[in-house]
Amino acid sequence: MKKLFPLTLVGVLLLGACGGEENPEEENTGEDRGEEETTEEMTGEEATEEETTEDDSASATDEESAEADDESTEEPGTTETSSEDQPEDLTEAEIDEEELRSAYDIDQDKVDMVENATETDNTVDDVLKAPSEITSYIQDTSIIIEVTEGEEITDQSFQGITAEVDETDGELEVASDYFDENYEIIQPHGYGNSETDELFIYSETGWEDYSTQYGVEELIYGTYSNTHEIIEEMPDSLQVLEEGDYDILYYTGNDDVVHQLYQDTFQVEFTGADMDELELGFVAFINKESGDLESANLIASAPGQQNPEQILTIEIILNYQEYGIFDGNTEIKKPNPDDMGSTSEEGEDEGIEGSLE
């Protein structure tokens, strides 16, 4: 399996709930999963070391050694560079990997913000825009389901959907595509328009008409309105924090109301897990200057009933950008009429399910 998320907020949120400290080794978990496709026997740390030594110095010690030997041993064309020059020497594959990390994941700066944030007297309404203030935007949803045992990831799945969204005047128009672990579009996903009562889902035979079976609000999970509703219904233990340029909404716990919100909004279901030990987490970042919600992470984790050493975690990452992009002459893309299929019969919504054997 290719690299997914080098760093997530699972450790920050759930360890915070348990009163523990974040283990630096947990950051290698993302590296482990990222190297699974090239070698399953190699640990994430070993894979990272091998990958790094092929391209550049991996530490300050290496850089100092390179500088010391520079005059006596370095030959023309050598690939050894300082960290300052390194970005110019990145191969195309490495550049893509750097873009992948920034596109998918909550970065280290924001993880640090959560750890260093301080509580404020602000309320949610003070820092979060109402849906009536939101028009159009781009929204990405990444869903990770993984089973871990100790530090080993024993099972993992990923789904990504990127969507063009317009919620102007209470209407909803959405055009969405699936993307893979490399943030590359795989195929169209769906199109819906509440004003015209249209809903199309893309399949192997082309676009199929589901207009009479579903509403456009069922097309994607992460509309701004949906996320705002989740936040509004969170318990009083939801904290309003601040750090740097961001207001941060933060929650950890196991409240039934939060579990129900996750189930109702995302159809999150656990199979074979000990629900008495369920831990839930939520964190959202709001840009202070613009007031825009930039991201929200929702996490649910529980040990296995048969094997408590196994931990099942479902993480939903919602990212928002380019607010107002479809307010002018730019239109949301429509399905190609040449790819239209027939009206489809109603199917079963599978939702998001994580299971332990």
UniProtKB/TrEMBL annotation:
<protein>
    <submittedName>
        <fullName>Uncharacterized protein</fullName>
    </submittedName>
</protein>
<feature type="compositionally biased region" description="Acidic residues">
    <location>
        <begin position="345"/>
        <end position="357"/>
    </location>
</feature>
<feature type="compositionally biased region" description="Acidic residues">
    <location>
        <begin position="82"/>
        <end position="99"/>
    </location>
</feature>
<feature type="region of interest" description="Disordered">
    <location>
        <begin position="16"/>
        <end position="108"/>
    </location>
</feature>
<feature type="compositionally biased region" description="Acidic residues">
    <location>
        <begin position="22"/>
        <end position="74"/>
    </location>
</feature>
<feature type="region of interest" description="Disordered">
    <location>
        <begin position="328"/>
        <end position="357"/>
    </location>
</feature>
